[in-house]
What does this fold into?
Amino acid sequence: MTITSDHWYLLKKSYYENGKISIMMNLNKLCLIFLFIFSNGAIACTSVYTTLDFSTAITRDFTGGQHAVPLGTLGNMSTERSIPTVFSNCNSTLPTETSYYAQYNGALGNPVTHYSGAGHTVYQLPNVPGIGVSFFMADPNMPWNQLRSTKSLMIKSNYPGIGFKSRVQYHIIGELKNGNYNVPRRHVGNMTVEGTKTVTPVQLWSPQTTITVNVASCKLDVPPLVNLNPDISKPTQFNVTVKGCSGRTTVSTSFSDANSPATTSTSLKNNGTATGYALKLEVVNGGAVQILPVASSGASSRPGEIPMGTGNVNVPLVKSFNAIVTKDGGKPQPGTLDFKAIVGVSYR
It folds into this structure.
C-alpha cells in the first residue's frame, strides 16, 4: 500500500489488467492506492470427495413368477442420488473448461454380452444368479452417461463447482434362484479430469446391496400327442402335470387354440380335412373347459383358467381331462381330424 499527498477528488477508476486490480481515490489531500497482486500460477481444484458411491446402500426384494418378468430392466430396483458438489475447492472462480471422465476398472468382470438391455452396459452382480447391474452418471442438467471399460466423457463444464447425479439400475439377465444375497460395496471405476484445472482423481464405488429373491417356478408336462378314440362318440382322456414348483406355489392351467391363439371359444377348430367337427375339452368329473387366448408373460390370473391346487418341489399336481369330438354345426364331411392346443400354466 502507498500513501501520497494530493487534493480532493472522488473515486477515479477501478480496473483489471495483467493480473492486478487497482483502486485509486484521493481523500482530503491524501491519495490512497491499494494494490492487490494475484499469483499467475495454474488454476487448481481439489475434490470434495476422494471416493464416491453411485448410491447409498440398497435393500430390495424380488418376488414373483420365474418367467413373469422378461429379460430387462427392473424399474422398481433402480435407485438415484444427487450430490451438489464433487469438485469445488478451487483457487479461482474464473470460467475454465474442464472435462470429467469415468472409466470402469473391471471389478465385476466383462459386460454381459448376451444381454443388450436397451443399450445398457450391464455387469453380472457377483454371486447373484440372473441379476445384473449398470451404472450411470451425469451433470444434473444433462443426459445420463454410462460407466464403461473405455474412458467416457461424463461432464463438461466451464465452472469449477461441479454437481453430480448418479443412478444404479438392476436387470434380469437370466434364471433367478431363491435366496438372500449380500453384495459388498466395491470399487468399480475412477473419475479423472482433463483441462486446465488440476483435480484429485475420484474412486467410484458400487453400493452395498442386499437382495432377497423369492420366485415361483414350475415345469409343465403334457403329452406331445393325444390319439383320439376311434369311436369318436366316446371321450379320450389325457393328463396335464405340473411339477418341480419352487416354494409353495398355487397353480392353474389353461388351453388355447393353436390355429386361433387370440380367440375365446368353447371348442378347438379342426385343422384336418374333415368338416363339420370340433373338439371340446372337459375336466374329468368336472365342467367344460373354455378355450382362452394365449396369455402374455406376467399376466394376472384370468377367468376360465382351471385351478390345479397348491404344490411344491416334491408334490406334483395332476389334472385329468376328456377330449370329446362334437359337431360344429356345419355339414359333416369325411376326412382327417387334427386339433392343436396350446397348454399354459400359471403359478403364483
